[in-house]
Amino acid sequence: MKKPILSLLLLLTPVLASALSQDKLNNLNLPPGFQIAIYAEVPNARQMALGDTGHIYVGTRRLGKVFQVIDHNGDYKADKVVEIASGLKLPSGVTYHNGDLYVGAVSTIFRYKNIDHELTKPDIIIDTLPKITHHGWKFLDFGPDNLLYFAVGAPCNVCLSKNPVFASILRMDVDKNHAPEIIAQGVRNTVGFDWHPVTHELWFTDNNRDNLSDERPYGELNRVRQKGDHFGFPFFHDNSLPDPDFGTKGKEASAYIEPELILDPHVAALGMVFYTGNMFPSKYKNQIFMAEHGSWNRTPEAGHTGYRITMGREVNGSLQYETFIDGWLGKNNKAFGRPVHLLQLPDGSLLLSDDKAGIIYRITYQSGVF
User: Fold this and answer.
1) CA 262 to CA 307: how far, in whole Å?
2) Is 17 strand, coil or helix?
3) CB proximity list for 294: less than 8 A, separation 6 or greater
């Protein structure tokens, strides 16, 4: 297999000679008291991970690179962006665990040991995952059980594969090298998940099929209740909408898990996070923030959707779908940015990656500032 190229190439110093103008930042609409600023410039920034020393690790997709973002003086503005790996195949997913960095690159998951302090040749955790790149890029994270979770998307727009690993979420013990086990099926393409801070249940976003219509299927926010839950793909989408080709080839709709929250059609919700910090007002505690990357093929007449941060917020016992930040999409249907992933910092602020603008933003709140 092709080996990743290890490097220590220093980039973007100073980081904040920004390619994104303040005028564009001013176009973003935030709730009263919230602010957004540029934390770092990282090309094609996708999933982020926080190291023990405060370094931020960032995967990319089309660039095939992984970056380390360093804030030496703790002023929440990056001082250095260091390229630590290149030549990888869609290394979108990164996570940090017990001092080591894990990178998901389609068929292979790498581990860079002691990454905060040295750069060495990575170990290979697994290299037998499917090599198909269609929905093959990874999102990965460690759960409360200390197992590594990741997804393998459907190798198509809509199809029924004989290989059960496709359209699933899996987990594995990276220390014992056990084979991955499937914990959720019928998941077309999730690029973001997190665990509820109280119940420890796994929640995830899922992107439904294309080329059905501009208004259906809807996007999904789902919850895994037990190992083996099936979420309907390719037989049904969103709220039991039968697929025109596969709707009669599975079980009855009631056999599949319906979404906890229906999102707008084709918003491409990617990263999601339960907010557990203390910086934001109390109504945001333990609520879900989602990065909507934006549609790619809705017709101009229907208009694009997404390009925003939304929330699944519990109100009177039910989840409400609401916009938290928007404005990346202009009135001419041209977006200057596409939100990807959210990462909470120890001070309670949120980082947000943007693979189109090549930016990592920091979202903060200050009472009395409007």
Assistant:
1) 17
2) coil
3) 267, 268, 304, 305, 306, 307, 328, 329, 335, 338, 339
CATH number, residue 349: 2.120.10.30
Distance in angstroms (rounded) separating the CA atoms of residues 169 and 186: 9
The answer to the question of residue 251 being in a domain is yes
* Secondary structure (3-state) at 5: strand
pLDDT band at 11 (very low <50, low <70, confident <90, very high): very low
3-class SS at 322? strand
Phi, psi of 241 (to 5 degrees): -80, 115
Q: What is the dihedral of CA 276, 369, 40, 12, to 10 degrees?
A: -160
Residue 370 lies in a domain: no
Domain total of the chain: 1
pLDDT band, very low/low/confident/very high, at 19 (cuts 50, 70, 90): low
The 8-class DSSP code of residue 258 comes to: P
pLDDT, residue 6, reads: 54
Note down the domain range covering 219: 5-365
Longest pairwise C-alpha distance within the chain: 60
Q: Give the residue among 191, 328, 206, 188 at the shortest CA–CA distance from 271.
A: 191
Nearest in space to 217 (alpha carbons), one of 248, 241, 190: 241
Residue 5 has pLDDT above 60, yes or no: no
Contact predicate 351/313, CB 8 Å: no
Burial track 229-260 (b if 16+ CB lie within 10 A, e otherwise): bbbbbbbbbbeebebeebbeebeeeeebbebe
> Which tokens belong to 86?
């290149």
Tens digit of each residue's pLDDT (9 = 90 or more) over 237-251: 999 999 999 999 999
